[in-house]
Design goal:
Number of strands: 6
Oligomer: single chain
Helix content: 55-70%
Shape: rod-shaped
CATH superfamily of one domain: CorA soluble domain-like
Structural class: alpha+beta
Strand order of the largest sheet: 1-2-6-5-4-3
Radius of gyration: 35 Å
CATH architecture of one domain: 2-Layer Sandwich
CATH topology of one domain: Beta Polymerase, domain 2
Length: about 325
């Protein structure tokens, strides 16, 4: 319970049904959806329709927003509470005039996480529920910005190590797998953020009665602009991942060129010896074949030609 004229305090769940919320107070309730009894108790303590209770028990594929007479209900995807698979976690937000209910299935206390940077008493009791939700959603967006920044840092380190290291077949596959993982993470972030555009745009419209009665419409317009910046940052991270892929492909092509260059030099070194051996191995008789000392002359000529080709290649910096 946030109290602008008194001390903020925790409220026991069994006292919710008798809890009175004053005009300068704001009640925030956080519920673990894995406990169906807790959700039922909240439903009896707050003016929440059964339809909202049913929606909170579902897992919608995209964020949604629904307006009721005394409150509105929206669903968002947050990185603050990560699921066991490491992806975004669904958070249901039910917002009244001076109360806010959040519900999720992750082992994270949203209230404690939100208040962790805050020291001492707050003035949150003087804000209305929709305004407070805008503050919470802005905090959720900050989690996406932190995740994008972390991905960009990982990609920068990846590019630096990629340029510095020598490529070989085994490491190439590992690097590609790591890069695919990074690109998938950026794609998930961008897709998740894009799914919030519709509800953020709706919240920022003056026609949305629950918001237009307060000063939160401007806050949601700013929040919608910040969402667009987050989507642009995620898109930029995805393009950075594609740039890293180009570096991998370039290094792979360079490694292939180096191998082909070495094979070409080896072929050039052996070719004169093979030509000489082929000519001398032809089935015709010549007088010099009777002179055994010429064998060493031919071997020396082969070695000399090969050494000359290697020296020429090194002079031209072919390898």
């Amino acid at each position: 319970m946030f109290d602008a004229e008194g001390a903020d305090e925790e409220v026991r769940s069994e006292d919710l049904s008798s809890q009175k919320v004053g005009p300068r107070q704001l009640l925030w309730i956080d519920v673990d959806l894995r406990d169906p009894q807790a959700l039922a108790d909240i439903g009896s303590a707050l003016p929440i329709e059964p339809e909202s209770i049913e929606r909170m028990q579902e897992s919608p594929s995209r964020p949604h927003l629904q307006d009721f007479e005394e409150y509105f209900h929206l669903n968002v995807q947050s990185l603050v509470a990560s699921s066991e698979e490491g992806g975004p976690e669904q958070i249901d937000c039910v917002v009244g005039q001076n109360w806010v209910l959040t519900a999720h299935r992750a082992d994270v206390e949203l209230i404690d996480s939100f208040l962790a940077p805050i020291r001492g008493e707050t003035e949150l009791g003087r804000v209305e529920g929709p305004v407070f939700l805008a503050i919470v959603l802005d905090w959720v967006l900050s989690g996406y910005f932190r995740a994008i920044e972390e991905l960009e840092t990982r990609m920068d380190k990846f590019d630096e190590s990629l340029i510095a290291r020598d490529m070989h077949e085994g490491s190439e596959q590992r690097l590609l797998n790591y890069l695919v993982e990074l690109r998938h993470a950026t794609t998930v972030l961008r897709r998740t953020l894009s799914g919030h555009r519709e509800i953020f745009a709706t919240l920022s419209q003056p026609e949305f009665v629950k918001v237009s009665k307060s000063e939160s419409a401007d806050r949601y317009r700013i929040l919608s602009e910040r969402l667009d910046k987050a989507i642009a940052a995620a898109e930029n991270a995805r393009e950075t991942a594609m740039g890293s892929l180009n570096i991998v492909m370039t290094r792979t092509a360079q490694r292939t060129n180096d191998v082909m260059k070495m094979l070409t030099v080896i072929s050039a070194v052996l070719l004169p010896a093979l030509v000489i051996a082929g000519i001398l191995g032809m089935n015709f008789r010549q007088p010099f074949f009777e002179r055994t000392e010429l064998f060493w002359v031919v071997v020396f000529a082969m070695v000399a030609l090969g050494a000359g080709i290697v020296a020429f290649a090194r002079h031209r910096r072919w390898f």
